[in-house]
Backbone:
DNA sequence: ATTATAAATGCAACCGGTTGCATTGTCAAG
DNA sequence: CTTGACAATGCAACCGGTTGCATTTATAAT
């Protein structure tokens, strides 16, 4: 493998001249340029070694990200693929690459992140919001480093991290809107099926849910608030956890992601309950999949790819210019109304009472 | 940011000693080790700069991949996420990271790949099979480099590249099996809805399809062979392209991915044709989504994550040891029988004839 | 006490670029 | 003919590690 010194020797110039020819940023006589290029051609020299270059200029044109839980079903949901897509689009347009690492546990997310930063392989870092305590620790750890990072998600508002860069969706407001949408359809008993209760987003959404009900003077029923594993089966199980409520059972379900909403559809189908005639269901994310099930899911579209694009833009900007740019960005979501929601039925749904509680086996 | 020289000065040892302490691969007296560690602690030195390290040892512990078509809907399908997942699992277990770059066109895939390799930022490279001509060019270009690579997919059999590393699914055989499965259900008019005809996998599957029919002495009807865009709408359009065949119309559809199969389900539903009572449909990939639609899709599970794991293993092995390992690996697929297939109906399906050919508008 | 042996550490070259500054060469103005 | 200005290139230090070999020191064997 040839180096610029080899090329220099062949072209009878100094290595620095070769470097300048390839950088294109210095004035080099046309004749020398040609000599260098043809020498490079001869030797099969394609481009300066990026590693050596990075060492010298202290830039890698790479942004890093750690994927949580590589061994779990983290890729089933459309969340991560959408994030990756958004990051990649911006990165590609700015001539950046993405260095992806894995992790195995919440603690490991931080370990891996620190290792990636400490190794100086990346110019900036994207952190994906996780459990609240992990986020706090992660931010604290990253702030002790000098690599810029932007978070997709945020820390609890109370937190005084005004210097933090983040982009998030307005989960609270969006959830409030979709709950209002259900209220407008006449629903009064609306179940909230959240995801991981340790995550901020789950609390934000719960806030949106509770505020909207409160404003409408609808008493909150804790039996309608449930948390499930972020997967199809999570939603499915949740229905079975609520179906013993008799006349207090929900006439509508809000699920914190589309997979769970799809699980809810399955459970209801199994119970012989018609959607949307008897019960309405809404999902969250607006994954492609939500449009493919039957009935097509009414869902809260969360523009994850767009958020990731913004995050990458902010990051790259703060890498390239010292003066940090706009620190935060809140994007809004959008209700995609489809076929899983309808006017509440005057006859409340009848959930069969089942002596068989096998379904509860794998509850959260 | 402190370096090993700073640490060395503080600990009153030579930089090489610090290097050895951190590498852990040399005998260092316990006392010196402690002195070095505490000096490092003091200075906030966390680990040796990986860039400098890479430059010196000529290894980055990174494998590269270029994502095709970042601006298209490449992430809608479960293919790429599954690949990423598999790569990441193996990489994580072997302390490797993945450098991901984007690309914009077929030609650009090669450009970007060469740029990534030429920059020496990666120790090995994963190439995703694409159009046949692109694959050929890509392989030729990569073989001219000295970085090992493994392909997910393969080149046409005739090709004498026995030294190539690849892992692929046995698409031909798998397709043959699922067609045989349909034949066993009594279907005789089976439509083949392939993906991009320029891709080898499409030809492999078509071979499986044709061979199986031929062996069963069923005449091939070219009108039942169609190619569509690898998305939900592709499958949907395809049905409308065939529904004018009257009594020659298919009683079963084979689709080359689940998204297209889902589109086929939608078209049939729209036409008032019952699945599986009147027409059977099978998909390919075994994406999570295939199990969520109604009727749940019978599909050919292709273990993309597993293939990616194998690919990463082969790659890492050939990075770490000079003697190249097993060169090729063919994994098998599996039929997941669900609810979209049934015994052929004695009454052939009646596809409504529609004067309205609006649906054909966006044909391939 | 002497010498052979091994353990611990230092030395210096090397990995492959970049870049501020110095030097040389060229041309035009004075 | 001298001088100044500028273009083109060379020089050498630097980026931050690693590692084969030499040197010093401690330990054991004779």
Residues:
């Amino acid at each position: 493998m040839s180096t610029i010194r080899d090329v220099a020797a062949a072209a009878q110039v100094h290595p620095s001249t070769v470097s300048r020819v390839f950088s294109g940023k210095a004035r080099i006589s046309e004749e020398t340029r040609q000599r260098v290029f043809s020498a490079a051609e001869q030797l099969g020299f394609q481009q300066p070694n990026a590693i050596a270059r990075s060492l010298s200029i202290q830039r890698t044109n790479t942004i890093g990200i750690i994927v949580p839980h590589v061994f779990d079903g983290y890729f089933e949901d459309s969340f991560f693929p959408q994030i990756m897509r958004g990051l990649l689009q911006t990165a590609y347009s700015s001539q950046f690459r993405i260095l992806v690492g894995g992790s195995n546990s919440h603690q490991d997310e931080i370990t891996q992140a620190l290792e990636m930063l400490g190794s100086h392989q990346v110019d900036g870092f994207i952190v994906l919001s996780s459990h609240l305590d992990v986020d706090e620790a992660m931010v604290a750890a990253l702030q002790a480093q000098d690599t810029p990072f932007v978070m997709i998600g945020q820390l609890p508002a109370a937190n005084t991290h005004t210097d933090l860069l983040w982009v998030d969706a307005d989960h609270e407001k969006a959830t409030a809107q979709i709950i209002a949408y259900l209220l407008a359809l006449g629903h009064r008993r609306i179940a909230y099926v959240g995801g991981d209760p340790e995550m901020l987003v789950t609390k934000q959404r719960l806030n949106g849910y509770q505020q909207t009900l409160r404003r409408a003077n609808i008493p909150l029923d804790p039996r309608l608030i449930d948390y499930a594993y972020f997967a199809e089966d999570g939603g499915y199980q949740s229905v079975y956890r609520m179906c013993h409520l008799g006349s207090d059972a929900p006439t509508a379900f809000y699920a914190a992601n589309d997979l769970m909403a799809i699980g809810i559809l399955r459970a209801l189908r199994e119970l012989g309950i018609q959607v949307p005639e008897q019960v309405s269901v809404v999902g969250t994310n607006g994954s492609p999949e939500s449009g493919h099930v039957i009935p097509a899911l009414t869902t809260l579209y969360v523009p994850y790819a767009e958020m990731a694009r913004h995050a990458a833009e902010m990051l790259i900007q703060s890498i390239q210019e010292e003066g940090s740019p706009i620190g935060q960005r809140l994007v809004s979501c959008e209700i995609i109304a489809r076929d899983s929601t309808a006017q509440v039925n005057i006859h409340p749904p009848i959930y069969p009472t089942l002596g068989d509680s096998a379904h509860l086996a794998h509850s959260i």
